[in-house]
Each structure stands twice: as C-alpha cells, then as structure tokens.
Amino acid sequence: MGRKRILTKEEILKETGVLLRKEGIHGVHFKKLSTELQVSRSTLYEYFKNKEDLILSYMRNMMEEMTKQIEAIPEEEAPNKKLYSLLYIFLDHAETHHIDQMIRELQNSDQTLALFYRTKIHEDLMGTYNQMLDWIDDAKKTGIWKDNIESEMVADLIFHSILFPTRHKYGVKEMTDQLFRMIEYGVKNE
C-alpha cells in the first residue's frame, strides 16, 4: 500500500470552492474531490462525515474569511474608501449569494445544523449591512457624498452587486472600480 498523502482541511475547502464554482452544489462529490486532490475518499471522511458537512464547513469558512477582511478595513479610512473596500470584498466573495440556496438543499440531511448556519450567516450579513449604512451616512455627514440620496438604496446596490453576471467578464477589480465610479460620480457625462 502506498504512503498516504498529507492533506490539510484548508486544501480540501479550497478545492471544494473550485468545484462549487465550476459545477455547482450537485457537482461536488467525494469521489470527484478525492480525484482532484489525489487522495482516497477515506481521507476525506477523516475530515468530514459527508458531503453536506463538507459544504457547510466550506460556507462557514468562506463567511469567516469575508468577515475577517471586512473587519480589517482601517477605521481611520474615509467612509467612501471603506465602502470601496467593502464592495471589492463582496465582489471577491460573490459566491456568497449561493449560500442560501446551498443551505436549503442541504437541509434534508441535517436540518438543525443547516438552520444554525443559515441564522448565523444572516446575522453576519445583517451586521455587515448595518456597518455599510453607517459608512454611507458618514460619507453624507462629512460632505463626501450628497445628503439627499437614500442610504438604503446605495447599500442595496453595493450589497446586491454580487448578483451582477458581468463580474466574470471584467474581473473583480475592474468591476469594483466601475461600479464605485458610478456610485460616487454617476454616469452623466459633464
């Protein structure tokens, strides 16, 4: 019998993300994942009890990573710069909009765990949304942005930018730059 390949949980989660983006939730199987990682399926079972456990762990890990990046935005930055950084983070983690769908599909196997993650992710996203509203209000109060715009409208535009299909066409940085220019300066040629 050959030597067992040493594998980290992070490697498994990273490859899971690749498969999810490429083939969706139904394309993630331990057989396919073990082939991509060049390990036996039993190795994957040492880390995760089943596919559902793996995908829920991936989602939790992705949300934790996104939250860390948001929390790392320097407090002393101007509010509009914070919002630019937040938009970039959202677009860079665009697969988060699939989380709700994934959790619904996973509820058949472990309803309690799926409900827990759904609630936790919702709380995290609402906390981020409220932080974003504060930054928008700060941008208005400091005169960086006009004060006659609705904060919720701007927040929704930023928050739902992950749904824009052209993100793949332009890339995260270009999409962030263009969207933020439209938010800050509009599209009118003056």
UniProtKB/TrEMBL annotation:
Q: Does Metal-binding count among this protein's keywords? A: no
Q: Entry's Pfam families?
A: TetR_N
Gene3D superfamilies tied to this protein: Tetracycline Repressor, domain 2 (1.10.357.10)
DNA-binding region extent = 29-48
Q: Which residues cross the membrane?
A: none
PROSITE patterns membership? HTH_TETR_2 (PS50977)
Gene Ontology MF terms in the entry:
DNA binding
- Taking the record's annotation, the residue ranges forming a coiled coil are none
- Domain HTH tetR-type, which positions? 6-66
What InterPro entries does its record include?
Homeodomain-like_sf, HTH-type_Tx_Regulator, HTH_TetR, Tet_transcr_reg_TetR-rel_C_sf
State the UniProt keywords alphabetically.
Answer: DNA-binding, Repressor
SUPFAM superfamilies, per the entry: Homeodomain-like (SSF46689), Tetracyclin repressor-like, C-terminal domain (SSF48498)
The protein's name:
TetR/AcrR family transcriptional regulator
Organism in which the protein naturally occurs? Halobacillus trueperi
The opening ranks of the lineage are: Bacteria, Bacillati, Bacillota, Bacilli, Bacillales
